[in-house]
Structure formats: C-alpha cells, structure tokens
Write a structure and sequence with these properties.
Blueprint lengths: L6 E9 L2 E10 L4 E6 L8 H11 L3 E11 L1 H4 L5 H12 L13 H5 L12 H77 L5 H14 L3 H18 L6 H21 L3 H21 L4
Parallel strand pairs: 3-4
Antiparallel strand pairs: 1-2, 2-4
C-alpha cells in the first residue's frame, strides 16, 4: 500500500533529570531532504540521528527537532568569564547618539558566541546519549510512519477512483474509434455520390477506398489505447506494492498524459475530443495526488 509523504511524530522522555523531546515532520519533496535542529551540546549525535532517518524514509522533506530541558545541575554549562568581560568592555565603549542611554543585559550577552560552552561529555556519556536520541528518533519515526500510512490509504482510494474513471473513458474512446471510420466512409460516399450526380461523372471505387484507408491510418489510435490500458494496469499494481513507488507513479502519470494528448491530436471526432478533455482532467488529478506519494 502506498504511503503519503506528509506526517508528524513526536516522543518525549525524561532521563537523569533531563526531559528530551524529538519531533519529526515531513512534507512532499522530489527526493529525501533531511534537516536537523539539535541543541549545541547534543550535536555529537547529529550524524547518528540523520542516518536513522535515512534508513527509515526514502522520500520527502523531513525536519527533525530535538529539545532538551532539565534541572540547573543537569543542564548548567560553564561560562567563559574572560569572554563575557570582553563583550561587556566592547559594548561599554560603544559610542551612542547624544541623549541615548543603554542598559547592558548580561543574559543577552551570555548568548553571544564563545561565552557559554556546552558540557564536555566523556565517550561513555556520548554513546549513551546518542543511543537514547536515536531510539527516540526511531519511535518518532514510527508515529510519523503510521500517519503517512493512514494518509496513504486515503490517497490510494482517491487514485484508484481516478484510475477507474479514466479506464472507463479509455474504453469508451476505444469503442468509438472504429465507428469514426465507418461514419467517415458513409459521409464521404454520400458526398461523392451527390457530386457525381450533379457533375455527371463517375469515380473509381478504388479511389474512394484509398481515401478511407488514409483517413483510418491518420486517426488510428489502437496503439495508444493499448498503451493506456497497460499503463493503467501497471499503475494499479504499483499502488498495491508495499514499497516506495512515488517516483515511478509520477513518471507513469506523465506517460498517461502523453498518450491522452496523442489520442486527442489523432482523433477527428467531437465525441472523442470531449472524452479526451475529461481524460486530461483525470490525469491532472492523478499527477497532483501522486506528488504526495512516497
């Protein structure tokens, strides 16, 4: 069953006085694009978290946000007093317009680069926290995958509905195509007969047959109808697979549109032309929905 590329998942966990939250969001994208937002003190786990996402997902724009909050003892980071003083000294020497008075906010100064250093975790702590964060990421991805699967079921139903409607139109055009040639032959025969009676001349039967044969060849859409039916069958089969098929479905939708356009350009019949317009509308709906399939 196909899966949507849109989803959301979040997991929270408290460990050693620190509360962790991992949030994963995804939207449609042509390829897999992963963006991470991780606190500076936890960036040693960035590669492991991204690798976990890439192992689970194959397509979509995915954003992973990791937050950590805890007690002062657990979260306190050392302050570089000399760097803080340098910032204060430089800001104090700044010249201000006459009449302008400024207050120095040490809290804001502390956020400047180099003032606060993240805690220096040892290898064992890094390994344990990396394992914890990748586990939370996996659980968030589970929740996201469930949402993507549920939305994929809705997408599957909508796509199959369009495919069934398109197949009905294709069958109608396939049935109409031979009738178009027959009607042309009758019209041409009647027109030639009228002209021969009015002009007093005769036309060889072979000439009439050749003209009808040329018309039939110009508007022959049998191959296009066969390919359309084959593409529709393949589309349904791909939708039933339990693997990412979004790119293939996107390509197949382009092929459907190409064949429908060819039918429209070759057919010389008002009824087929109306069906072609409706077929194009259905293919456009399919293309739009396929954009969100993983």
């Amino acid at each position: 069953m196909i899966r949507s590329m849109t989803g959301f998942g979040t997991v929270e966990l408290a460990d050693n006085g620190i509360s962790y939250a991992v949030e994963v969001r995804s939207v449609n994208h042509r390829y897999l694009k992963v963006s991470l937002k991780i606190p500076e003190r936890l960036q040693f786990a960035e590669n492991a978290v991204e690798r976990t996402v890439r192992e689970r997902l194959s397509r979509g724009s995915v954003s992973v946000t990791i937050r950590a909050q805890g007690t002062i003892d657990a979260m306190l980071s050392p302050i570089d007093q000399s760097m803080l003083q340098r910032y204060v000294d430089e800001l104090s020497r700044a010249s201000l317009p006459e009449g302008v008075h400024a207050t120095l906010d040490l809290g804001a100064v502390a956020l400047l680069p180099g003032v606060i250093h993240p805690p220096d975790f040892d290898d064992e702590q890094r390994t344990r926290m990396t394992t914890l964060l990748t586990d939370l990421t996996k659980r968030s991805l589970d929740a996201l995958s469930n949402m993507r699967r549920d939305e994929g079921q809705a997408l599957h139903g909508a796509l199959i509905e369009c495919i069934d409607a398109l197949r009905e139109k294709v069958d109608g055009v396939g049935e109409r195509a031979p009738v178009v040639v027959e009607e042309y032959q009758k019209r041409l025969t009647n027109r030639v007969s009228t002209m021969m009676q009015a002009g007093g001349f005769e036309l060889e039967a072979d000439a009439l047959a050749r003209e009808v044969a040329l018309f039939a060849d110009r508007c022959d859409i049998a191959e296009e109808i066969t390919r359309l039916r084959s593409h529709l069958d393949q589309f349904v089969e791909l939708c039933a697979r339990d693997e990412p098929t979004g790119r293939t479905l996107d390509f197949l939708a382009q092929e459907l549109l190409r064949e429908v356009n060819t039918v429209g350009s070759k057919s010389n019949d008002a009824q087929i032309a109306r069906n072609v317009v409706e077929m194009k509308a259905l293919v456009d709906r399919i293309k739009e929905q396929v954009q969100n399939v993983e």
